[in-house]
């Protein structure tokens, strides 16, 4: 009985698999447009197709995966038009959120933001661009959390998930990961409680990110799921 319980606990469930796939997508180990075959994933994670299906529907809800009838699930592949719309939406929401964060941030919040920056720069130093981009997204999500605007934070989190795919497809220079000093300047403004400056810096930062993209269609070399998820 105890052995069965332990076995059940060690088996990945839908939420665990959704989180693992989300991280793999954000770190660019799984390219946009990749087919996420239920049989392949069930074999990789050692679970039933039912659990895989639940994980894929969770990712579809967050716009990371597109499910097509009779074709299966694919990592979302945003068009250039969608890319522009995503960054326009972020430019509308995040500057105001940065202002609110500056009005509410505690010393603990500032320490956490600085920790995110250190981890991001460490990832860049070891040329792990996928991890750096993932950490950059978490930095922006953390600012939304500090602002204490739950509904807007949920929108921002979904937009950032889309942004990761967009940058994977369309970046034309490494600064699309995030300008090296942009996050430092934002944290400095937030730590001083300067909401106006934080708002301005966030807006210019997002404009810079958008301008670093080359919004033309392109193809990504295929890679097997097993190879991507075991790396």
Going by CATH, the homologous superfamily of the largest domain would be GntR ligand-binding domain-like
Strand order of the largest sheet: 1-2
Q: Roughly what fraction of the amino acids lie in strands?
A: under 5%
CATH topology of the largest domain: Four Helix Bundle (Hemerythrin (Met), subunit A)
Instruction: Summarize the helix and strand pattern as letters.
Output: HHHHEEHHHHHHH
Q: What is the level 1 CATH name of the largest domain?
A: Mainly Alpha
Major sheet characteristics: 2 strands, antiparallel
- As for the number of domains, it is 2
Given as residue ranges, the uncertain stretches (5+ residues, pLDDT < 50) are: 1-10
List the total number of helices: 11
Helix content: 55-70%
| Alpha carbon gyration radius | 19 Å
Number of strands: 2
